[in-house]
Amino acid sequence: MPRGSEVGPNTVSRIIKAIWQYPRISRVGIAERLGLDKSTVTNQVARLIEIGLIEEMDEGSAGTRGGRRPIHLAMNRSFGRVIGIEIQGESYVAVVVALAGEILGELRGSIPA
CA 46 from chain center: how many Å? Predict the structure, then answer.
């Protein structure tokens, strides 16, 4: 499949997953890792920044041949939370996690028979 031809509904979720898995990745890093055109990544990242899901961090170092310094990206820790609940026969665990993967709270308990 030619580079950049996978622009579709999964593109945004793939970009978000790459940022989540590789904190401080740059737009170029995402394009290389996912096999997408840089312009596609730039456009999608702009939308994600606009809604507040991701944010730009600091600038990285320029390469040995010069050029633009990459801008690192990360999940916006204050954007939202994920709640997970595991229920077993006699107990439960509930966890609240920030989008970046940080556990914010946990509650464990037993379920009466």
Answer: 14
- Taking the CB of residue 40, how many other CB atoms lie within 10 A of it? 19
Q: Which residue has the tokens 């991701």?
A: 54
The predicted structure's pLDDT at residue 65:
67
| Cβ-contact 106, 94 below 8 angstroms | yes
Q: Residue 75 burial by CB count (10 A; 0-12/13-18/19+): exposed, middle or buried? A: buried
The span from the CA of 96 to the CA of 90, in Å, is: 21
Asked if 108 contacts 101 with a C-beta cutoff of 8 angstroms, the reply is no
pLDDT one-digit tens code per residue, 69-113: 889 999 998 888 999 999 999 999 999 998 878 899 999 999 987
- pTM surpassing 0.90? no
**Residue 89 class from Cβ within 10 Å (0-12 exposed, 13-18 middle, 19+ buried)?**
exposed
Q: Which two tokens stand for residue 106?
A: 């946990």
Distance CA 78, CA 53 (A): 9
